[in-house]
Amino acid sequence: MIWEVFRQEQAGEYHTHCGNVHAPDREMAKQFAAVQHGRRKPTNSLWVVPRDEVGEITGDDVAFGGTTDKSYRWATTYRTTGADASEVVESESEQADAEQGRGDD
Amino acid sequence: MSSPLENPTDFSARERRALETLVKRLGDDEFVLAERYTEWQVRAPSLESDLALANNAQDELGHARLWYDVLADLDVDERDLVYERDPADFRHSTLVELPFAEGDWADAVLRSYLYDAAEDLRLEALEDSAYPPIADRVGKIRSEEEYHLEHARNWLERLAEGEEGRDRLQDALDRLFPHALTLFESATPPVETAIPTREASGSNEIERNTDETSGDRSDADAAAAVEGDIVDFGLRTATLEELGEEWLSIVVPFLESLDLDVPIDESTIGEGVEYAVTVESLPTQLGRDGTHTDAWFDLYDDLTHTYRELERSDAAKIREDPDR
């Protein structure tokens, strides 16, 4: 049986999916997860969830966010050469930092 | 109580011998068990159980290092303790040196339960040790040992649910239980402690110890004497007898609750205690007295092979001194 594992680094943060473990039951899953996913990176708490209990909905099932093309909202295609573009560069790097901070990449 | 055991350079020969004997039995148990555990690497029943046992093995190696490091203050270094020591001078229990029955996970799980349950009790008895470096180490070690014990108990409960698993556990129990009892045997003081130090008042005893080490009787006497010192000096706050009785009162009911038959004689139930470790229930080799099964000498050859092959003269150290 497969248990999906979610790790929280610090109290108050989100639990983020970090992998899974094979285990016959919840108790063993918690124990294995502690070693496999809580040993190397800073860990405050782990959740183990039976894979079957995870509900999933994908882009094939539903059009996320409707059918309008919203790529214009992602202002990452401006020219960034030239002195006047420094604000764009800063803003982009802030955005990249934020994405990294959320664990998006 | 004002601690008489602050500065190792002021130790009497007897104090030194007691400390060295205690630390060797602690460190050797951890070290040899870790060596055995690593044999399961990439062979355990699943990736998860493999990693869990490897994790425990790594913990035990770390604990061995913590204990051995206590002796650094007595000028005994890791190289002397691991690579240059006569294998017959190791003081671990025979429980930890036995090879696993081929592919028998029940053996690994049961052994770790028997050992970890005993370790939990002995750590408790070291928490208030009169020698601060011992007491200081207990907290770190105990926090990791909780996982080991939980891991072993969980596996036992699950293996015992099925008939095949229970049969395998029973076989392992019959084989391992007598050896587990040697965990509570007193250890013969190591040979090198007999080297006279500048302490004059202890010299009588040192001579007695070196002169008579040939006879079994005097070995047993020396072991009993040094074990008495370990407790009298406050290095450990419980006797081996007390630890053994307590251990039996925990593991026997637990194993019986799994429908296992514990090979312990009813006659060992004494007055006021539920069970006691008796001579009749012990195996021929006790480990603690320097007698070991052949398997240990083979294992020692294996684990020192590279060191000898490469003609090393030092043990690599990648961690700093835990006391600094």
From TrEMBL, chain A:
Residues 81-105 are annotated as: Disordered. Residues 87-97 have a biased composition (Acidic residues). It holds the Pfam family PaaB. It comes from Natrarchaeobius chitinivorans. It comes from the Archaea. InterPro entries: PaaB, PaaB_sf. This is Phenylacetic acid degradation protein PaaB. Gene3D superfamilies: Phenylacetic acid degradation B. Transmembrane segments: none annotated.
Automatic annotation (TrEMBL), chain B:
The lineage of its organism: Archaea, Methanobacteriati, Methanobacteriota, Stenosarchaea group, Halobacteria. This is Phenylacetate-CoA oxygenase subunit PaaI. One of its GO terms (biological process) is phenylacetate catabolic process. NCBIfam families: PA_CoA_Oxy3 (TIGR02158). It comes from Natrarchaeobius chitinivorans. One of its GO terms (cellular component) is cytosol. Residues 205-220 have a biased composition (Basic and acidic residues). It comes from the Archaea. InterPro entries: Aromatic_CoA_ox/epox, Ferritin-like, Ferritin-like_SF, PaaA_PaaC, PaaC. Signal peptide: none annotated. Residues 189-220 are annotated as: Disordered.
